[in-house]
Amino acid sequence: MKLTLSLAAATLLAASTAYAQSYPSEPVTLVVPYGPGGASDLAGRALAESAREYLGQPVTVVNQAGAGGMTGARDVVQADPDGYTLLLARVGMALSPAVNENSSVDWDEYTFISPLEATPMILAVADDSPYESVEDLLEGIENDPGAMSYAASGATAIDGFTVQSLLADAEMDPLTAATLIPLPWGW
Question: Would you indicate the residue range of the signal peptide (predicted)?
Fold first, then answer.
C-alpha cells in the first residue's frame, strides 16, 4: 500500500510538473493601468521580478494609464484569453462597473486570480488642525458642507472610495459634504 501511494504521488507530481511547464511557454505581459512611478507601477514591477523566477519566462510591465485605470482594463479584457496578458487590477477596476452603468468593462469580464497586496488607508490632518479625532473632523464637515476638500486618484479609486464610505457611514452625502480634488498623476 505504501508503494502504491508513493507511485500515485510521484505520478501526480510528474503530471502536475509537466502541466505547469506548458505555461508559460512565452513571455507574459502585465498591464499596469496607471502611469509609471506610482504605487501600482511599483507593485507591478515587484510582481514581474518575482514571477520571472517562478514562471521561467520574462514578465513585461506595460503602463496603460487613462480613465482611472479602465483604459488598461479594457485592453486586457479585449486581449486573447490565453493567460499571457494579465492586469494588475486595483479596487477601482471592480468599483467602476458597480457604480458606473457606462463602465467600459463589466464586472463579469474579469477573472480574479489572487490578491497582490494590502494598501493601508491613513486619515491625517495637519499638526495645527483643530480636529483631534475622526468625530471632530466629521462634525466639522457636517457643520460646513462643501468647505473641506480631499485629494484622491478618483471617485472609484480606493483613496476616493474610502473617504466617500466614511462620509456615507456618517450619513452625509459624499458628493456634497467634501470636495474631491483628483490627483493629476492618476495612480
Answer: 1-20
Q: What is the spatial distance between Cα 61 and Cα 19, in angstroms, rounded to a whole number?
A: 25
Burial of 167 (0-12, 13-18, 19+ CB in 10 A): buried
Question: Which ranges of 23-130 does DSSP label H, i.e. alpha helix?
Answer: 39-55, 70-78, 91-99
Q: How many Cβ atoms are within 10 Å of 157's Cβ, its own excluded?
A: 24
57: cell is 519566462
Q: How far is CA 164 from the centre of its chain?
A: 17
For the domain spanning 25-109, the CATH number is 3.40.190.150
Is the distance from CB of 156 to CB of 100 less than 8 angstroms?
yes
Which residue reads 476638500 in cell numbers?
149
Q: For 103-146, what is each residue's pLDDT tens digit? A: 888 888 888 888 888 878 888 888 999 999 999 999 999 999 99
* Sequence spans of domains, the chain: 25-109, 134-182
